[in-house]
Amino acid sequence: MSSSLNIKSIHFILLLITTPILFIASRNILQAQSAHNYTIEYAILADSKITVAGTTNINEFACFSIEKYGKSKGTTTIDPVTNTAIFRDTKLKVATVSLNCGNDAMNSNLYNLLRAEELPYIIIEIQQAKSKDGKPVNFSVQSPMTAKVYITLAGVRRINEITFTGKEMYPGAYHFTGQHNISLNDYHLKAPEASIWPGESE
Questions:
Q1: Is residue 76 within 8 Å of 39, Cβ to Cβ?
Q2: Closest Cα to residue 94, out of 108, 106, 111?
């Protein structure tokens, strides 16, 4: 018996830290307590992560990235009128072959599905974000938010609207986590028929 592999969702953890001199200011800005637009500089921290989850016709699976991100920088501009943050250069880029699904056969099937040799990266780019209810964000608790995000799979880049949560871990440092369901058709991908993986019976 063979089993087909299908990606269902992409999960992400994005950790940001603002420029040290803006620790206190950023807290107020992100909560939209000003009448003017402000721009904040930040760095994406190395412990940010991408996980791919899916199913075969027998099992569910999750493939975790074993890659560490280099600290990259970007900016966000806060519009306190619309309570919207516009991001620039906020990108999680992970090599597909850094994803580990738990066994070599499943890894190989995932890499083939995502054409890892030819198009080696999964990319998540945040374009803009705001609180789910449109009010200023309270980062002292896990706050529900929405965002417009580009997701690139197998070289195909598509805009998506996702929901996620955000919280300030300590002054100037923010933790965002979310997931988004994926349709392979949207990325011109077809789930292959895969050979039996360890733990599956004929």
A1: yes
A2: 111
Give dist(CA 2, CA 30) in Å, integer.
Answer: 50
* Threshold 0.85, pTM exceeds: no
Greatest distance between any 2 Cα atoms in the chain: 65
193 pLDDT more than 90? no
| Domain residue spans of the chain | 3-183
Q: What is the CATH number of domain 3-183?
A: 2.40.128
Burial class for 195, CB neighbours closer than 10 Å (0-12, 13-18, 19+):
exposed
Distance between CA atoms of residues 197 and 56, nearest Å? 10
pLDDT of residue 27: 46
55 pLDDT above the threshold of 70: yes
pLDDT in tens, 129-162: 998 988 888 888 899 999 999 999 999 999 999 9
* Kind and range of the H or E run holding 12: strand 6-18
